[in-house]
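Subject: for your reference before the review

Hello V.,

The reviewers asked for a structural picture of the protein, and I figured it would be easier to keep everything in one thread rather than splitting it across files. Below is the amino acid sequence we used in the manuscript, unchanged from the supplementary table.
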Amino acid sequence: MHRSICAECRMPVLWTVTEAGKRLPVEPDPDPEGNAAVRRDGLGTYRSRRPSEELPLMGWERLHVPHFAVCVGRGRAPAPARPGALPQGVADLAAYRRKSRGRPGSSR
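And here is what came back from the structure prediction:
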C-alpha cells in the first residue's frame, strides 16, 4: 500500500493493512492524537493496528489519524429510510434476490 488521493475529498492518504487484513486509509503525517499505530513491514507494506494496554505503541510505530475521521467528502446525505410495509400489489424484490443468491445456477 502506498500514498494516494482520497476519491471523496481529494486529499492525500496513506493506505495501510490492518491486523485483520482490511485496508485502512490514514493521514500521511504522524499525529500524536491519532489512534492507529503504523509501521512498515519488511516488504514495504504499511501495517496498522490499534495500540492497547497489553501491546502499547512500539518504538518503530508512529500514531496516525484514520482518514475517515477527518475526510470532508464523506458528508453525503444518509440513505432514505425504507417504508415499514409495502403497498398492496407491490412485490419485495430484495427478499427475492436474497433467496436466489444462494441457489446453484443463479446468475450471481
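For the response letter, the relevant points are probably these. The longest strand covers residues 12-17. Residues 13 and 27 are 5 Å apart (CA to CA).

Happy to draft the paragraph if you're swamped.

O.
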